[in-house]
From TrEMBL:
Protein name: Glycosyltransferase family 2 protein
UniProt source species: Paenibacillus ehimensis
Enzyme Commission number, as recorded: 2.4.-.-
All residue ranges annotated as the Glycosyltransferase 2-like domain in the record: 8-140
Keyword set, alphabetical order: Glycosyltransferase, Transferase
UniProt keyword annotation of Nucleus present: no
Entry keyword annotation includes Mitochondrion: no
Family annotation (InterPro entries): Glyco_trans_2-like (IPR001173), Nucleotide-diphossugar_trans (IPR029044)
Superkingdom of source: Bacteria
Recorded GO MF terms: glycosyltransferase activity
């Protein structure tokens, strides 16, 4: 590419020295790269700066805005369009070319979803459950919603698994990102344990079907159906391994589907635990009221 893509890349980091170099190199065709770091204690910042990224530190105060929305509000952008990339993700050459083509003319949409190819057990999964995230958008037309999730156990500083709100139309790009985390399987399950704390809290509050969140119509319908299902963990496995042909990815496809089922099993039992604690907390008040009556 002779001309750099006029999109500001925002990379979220905290102790990502294993991943950050390959991530930054994958976005070298973009004309502005921010690394928003959360007080890393490893070599993340040093590596990022050596590769030409603009490093900005972020210290969360436990309130809104969280990290992605804070970045929208505070970074000194040179461009109107932003692309969010996690440190364990890589923008593929095909996706770079597609984004460049979108930016060469006036974009017909204000936001674009991107799909992801996951590397699991050192294998690129071509089947199974596919993740899509709205990561490319006009920063003047989008924002991340406050999800009333600050009370979730093990809360962290980055917005959870939901999409930003975009004013205007959104579309899905054809090419994908590559999700390749160099951390161990231990870290994969540790993150899912934390994420399931968050999801249990917001599901219990009925917040995962927020109509303000931008979604493709088909995806919004799928989420609505999934949210109404009992035993989501069983459906998650069947959907990923059989309906989405995860078995074609061999043993890695099976374990990925099973891990997804375990995640939703965690969410369900954590929701049960939260209900129990809520009932226990309200019981003394009810007993006291009955005694006075």
């Amino acid at each position: 590419m002779a001309k750099l893509i006029p999109v500001s890349v925002i990379i979220m980091t905290k102790n990502e020295e294993k991943n950050i170099a390959k991530c930054i190199r994958s976005v070298r065709h973009f004309n502005e790269i921010f690394v928003v770091d959360s007080n890393s204690t490893d070599k993340t910042v040093e590596i990022a700066e050596s590769l030409g990224a603009k490093v900005v530190n972020f210290t969360w105060d436990g309130k809104y805005p969280k990290k992605k929305q804070w970045s929208l509000e505070n970074l000194p952008f040179s461009n109107d369009w932003v692309l969010y990339v996690d440190a364990d993700e890589e923008v593929t050459p095909g996706l770079s070319d597609e984004i460049a083509a979108v930016m060469e003319k006036t974009p017909s949409h204000n936001g674009y979803f991107v799909g992801y190819d996951y590397v699991f057990m050192n294998k690129v999964l071509k089947h199974g459950h596919q993740v899509h995230k709205l990561v490319l958008f006009n920063r003047h037309e989008g924002r991340f919603l406050d999800y009333d999730d600050l009370g979730a156990a093990n809360m962290w500083e980055v917005e959870g698994h939901y999409q930003p709100q975009i004013n205007g139309k959104v579309e899905l790009l054809r090419h994908k990102m590559l999700h390749f985390d160099h951390d161990a399987i231990f870290d994969y399950f540790a993150r899912h344990n934390r994420y399931s704390d968050w999801e249990a809290t917001v599901r219990l509050k009925g917040l995962l079907s927020n109509p303000q969140e931008s979604q493709k119509a088909s995806r919004a319908l799928q989420k609505k159906v999934f949210n109404a299902l009992p035993m989501k963990w069983a459906f998650a496995f069947l959907h990923s391994y059989f309906f989405k042909l995860g078995f074609l990815d061999g043993s890695a496809g099976f374990h990925f589907a099973f891990a997804r089922a375990v995640y939703y099993w965690q969410v369900e039992i954590k929701m049960t635990e939260l209900r129990r604690k809520s009932n226990q907390a309200s019981a003394p008040f009810v007993q006291q009221t009955n005694a006075k009556a």
